[in-house]
Specification:
- Helices cover 40% and strands 11% of the residues.
- It has 366 residues and is α+β, with helices and mostly antiparallel strands.
- α9 crosses α12 and α10 packs across α12.
Length: 366
Amino acid sequence: MSSTTARKKERSTPANTPSARPTLLLAWYDRHRRRLPWRAMPGETSDPYRVWLSEIMLQQTTVKAVGPYFEKFVARWPDVTGLGLASQDDVLRMWAGLGYYSRARNLHACAVAVTRDHGGTFPDTEEGLRALPGIGPYTAAAIAAIAFDRHTMPVDGNIERVVSRLFAVEEELPQAKPLIQQLAATLLANSRAGDSAQALMDLGSSICTPKKPACALCPFTEDCTARVQGTQDTFPRKAPKKSGTLRRGAAFVVTRGDELLVRSRPEKGLLGGMTEVPGSDWLAGHDDATAKQQSPDLKGLSRWQRKVGVVTHVFTHFPLELVVYTARAEARTRAPAGMRWVPIATLADEALPNVMRKVIAHALDL
């Protein structure tokens, strides 16, 4: 449906009827859609690779943060086959700083599977997409709708907010997710499913924002139950968050001239496969003396110096505090088993998670 046709239909259908909502939404989208590097322009066909890559990157991350990473990835690997032939280490290095690193490992595993098992072509159904590594129900629905125009509605945080306000969903998240999914599906147009989904995403991002929504500019302003009640700021209802127990540990920053001692974390688990400086276990019952016993064993090492202050970082399930110790190794000192020396000047090329970047900056006064 063209934007002109949508506007004509918008004028001919009463604005306060539920059947008008999909048309109102698409008419608004045709005027106000965001320009995003992974989004096809009007009249263009969406690239499933770019849609998939952006959806994985956007999980728990903002559009602003993802933009530069997306551009770097498509410049390095223009298609899924190129990404599937890359090494996981290269992918982790390119991902470093974007956080939630299991996404990067799943991204690579998915690219390998699509290249190996599907000839470099993504399945075009939700079921086929969900069979791939790292693709859950939401991501499968998003790719199916946006890349293949399947009649399905993905529901992200923006869409949850729009729908919960439009229908004044009183049930708290996450229990309300099934109901919100059902209600969101009523906003699908008979065609242009991908545009319907992206319209709701844009509406939540630019108009129906978490605080002080611009209700006067919303296509549903006359039809939104929460706005009529004056309660839009209170939706969606959410159960109180439970914060994890604070964990503490020690990080050991060893330099050998202009080189730094690092190691790779185990492939499985938190920050799997990422680069780190040696450190102690991260425990709720951290003890400095016990932690120092886990320092790396090198001959001729200078005395450990504890840096003033601590490095703090918040993971999804717990906050972390690290004390930082520094020491210098003599020239030609060999790295302990499982560790290696890397030039400080090339640290940007290492797959360092943000917490390790903080540690190194604190230790070396960078």
